[in-house]
Design brief:
5-stranded parallel β-sheet, about 55% helix, Thymidylate kinase, globular, alpha/beta
Length: about 220
């Protein structure tokens, strides 16, 4: 749980699900409602975290090393940026958080959930997101989007279909186990439909914390 008035929102999904497309729109809508917002990402979010991000995305390493580096970056991020912001009553919007480790390392890489859970408890001590937006698309859609997307793919994006299927299944298992926190977004739809749903979710979070909902947002086109 976060400090009263604060709200910790995370965005999750397969590479290619399109979640990053909606981040500027979500930021704009929250700020229009008067929210004092920290927008950040994982891995990264701090100078040390961004250095570790480059290693994690582009250097081959053992699975245990990968998982420990993810949590090293997360601990720095949590302790020096996210937790202080929440304790000040600010909102935090984070592109990926610990659910990504359950999905990618625990599921996709086959590490299993228990090592991730132990590290989660050690770093976060029972605290975590208030709301997680899981952008979900079929595997074929995600891979097709990736194939026409980025000039430089990272080592996660280059994984095979079986890896992504295990990752997606792990995300769905997380969502099923915590339905009060997760909102599963069908990201196959057009921007207007997705943003109408996102707007309703954000308005509910705003009202619950004493903010008037924003009147709109960025043009969806």
């Amino acid at each position: 749980m976060t400090t009263r008035g604060a709200c910790f929102i995370t965005l999750e999904g397969l590479d290619g699900a399109g979640k990053s497309t909606h981040i500027p729109w979500i930021e704009d809508r929250l700020r229009q409602a008067g929210v004092d917002l920290l927008s950040t990402r994982e891995p990264g979010g701090t100078p040390l975290g961004e250095t570790l991000r480059e290693l994690l995305l582009h250097k081959p390493m053992d699975l245990r090393t990968e998982t420990l580096l993810m949590f090293a970056a997360r601990n720095e991020h949590w302790r020096t940026r996210i937790l202080p912001a929440l304790e000040q009553g600010r909102w935090v919007l984070c592109d990926r958080y610990t659910d990504a480790s359950f999905a990618y390392q625990g599921g996709g890489r086959g590490l299993g959930a228990e090592p991730v859970r132990i590290l989660e408890e050690w770093v976060q001590q029972g605290r975590g997101p208030d709301c997680t937006l899981l952008f979900d698309v079929p595997l074929a859609t995600a891979r097709e989007r990736l194939s026409r997307g980025r000039a430089r793919s990272d080592r996660f994006e280059r994984e095979d279909a079986a890896f992504f299927e295990r990752t997606r299944q792990a995300y769905h298992a997380r969502a099923a186990a915590d339905p009060d926190r997760f909102r599963v977004i069908d990201a196959r739809r057009n921007l207007e439909e997705i943003r109408a749903e996102l707007g309703g979710i954000l308005d509910g979070l705003l009202r619950a914390r004493g903010h008037a909902p924003a009147s709109g947002g960025l043009d969806p086109a």
